[in-house]
Amino acid sequence: MNGDELPFEMGIAVYAKGTNKFEFDPVLLDSGYDPIWDAIREEAKLEAEKEPILSSFLYAGILAHECLEQALGFVLANRLQNPTLLATQLLDIFNGVMMHDKGIQRSIRHDIQAFKDRDPACLSYSSAILHLKGYHALQAYRVAHKLWIQGRTLLALALQSRISEVFGIDIHPAAKIGEGILLDHGTGVVIGETAVIGNRVSILHGVTLGGTGKETGDRHPKIGEGALLGACVTVLGNISIGAGAMVAAGSLVLKDVPPHSVVAGNPAKLIRVIDEQDPSLAMKHDATKEFFRHVADGYKAALSNGAVSSGDAEKGHN
């Protein structure tokens, strides 16, 4: 190994940790050194040896390609094709964007590292690129977003439609999404046109980032870096979820959420302040006990203040 090369473990850490702003050195790719792609190929070779019946599948999806972009483009094209939008056409679209956009090349690697680090069901990098629809939908969105920026809006919307049909995940191509994102399961996620999602955010299934009516303009939520949105969370309107905040599963959020806080309920209420810089990385999203303790404390306070009568309290137990 010469002085310009990095040890394999150190190379992976470049993607996994980076900095708080997810800075990335494109020299890694320009020099031909790509530790995540190397790991994906090694995983695929081992899996082909262990499960020979899948060897053709692994070769077509991974081993036949020269880089992560080409492999990902092949997988996405075959997942999203239909009789009028052919796999060969989609492959040209995906390769045309991903092979020439340094930002997307950086994002797809930070995203796959996020899946590997935070989703216990993601056993390997290769499983993410081959099987996880949350990862697939996110990367297909990134291509659609680039097309939207280029003014190819009809094609971008066609991709959005296919992503929604195939993966059950609806992301408007105009939405702005950062890097190191986890869409865990992904089923039922809806992200509106003017939504903005910062880096290192984790989003579970059933999350909606929506508007509140027929108004136009900037009308969707803004999610700060490192935030964690639990399963089936609904956030409505042009409001902010602060950096490092956690929204418990099933919550309905209609007001701004302060940074580094936990909210829960319908409508969501502040439960406590948290110390974690990025709860999205820890993935501890069960606030149920804290929420019911908060409700009970509030109910006791209402009783002592006379806001709730003892008769009403008894009816509540009957």
Chain-wise SSE layout:
Blueprint: H1 8-16, H2 27-30, H3 35-50, H4 55-63, H5 68-80, H6 87-98, H7 102-118, H8 125-131, H9 133-149, H10 153-167, E1 170-171, E2 176-177, E3 182-183, E4 190-191, E5 196-197, E6 202-203, E7 208-210, E8 222-223, E9 228-229, E10 234-236, E11 240-241, E12 246-247, E13 252-253, E14 261-264, E15 269-273, H11 279-282, H12 288-304, H13 310-317
Parallel strand pairs: 1-4, 2-5, 3-6, 4-7, 5-8, 6-9, 7-10, 8-11, 9-12, 10-13, 12-14
Antiparallel strand pairs: 14-15
Helix pairs in contact: 3-4, 4-5, 5-6, 6-9, 7-9, 9-10
At a glance:
The chain is built from 13 helices and 15 strands.
Defining key terms:
318 residues, 6-stranded mixed β-sheet, 5-stranded parallel β-sheet, disordered N terminus, disordered C terminus
What does this structure look like?
The protein has 13 helices and 15 strands. It has a 6-stranded mixed sheet with strand order 3-6-9-12-14-15. The protein has a 5-stranded parallel sheet with strand order 1-4-7-10-13. It is of the alpha/beta class and 318 residues long. The model is unreliable at 1-24 and 312-318 (pLDDT under 50). Helix 4 crosses helix 5 (68-80) and helix 7 packs antiparallel against helix 9.
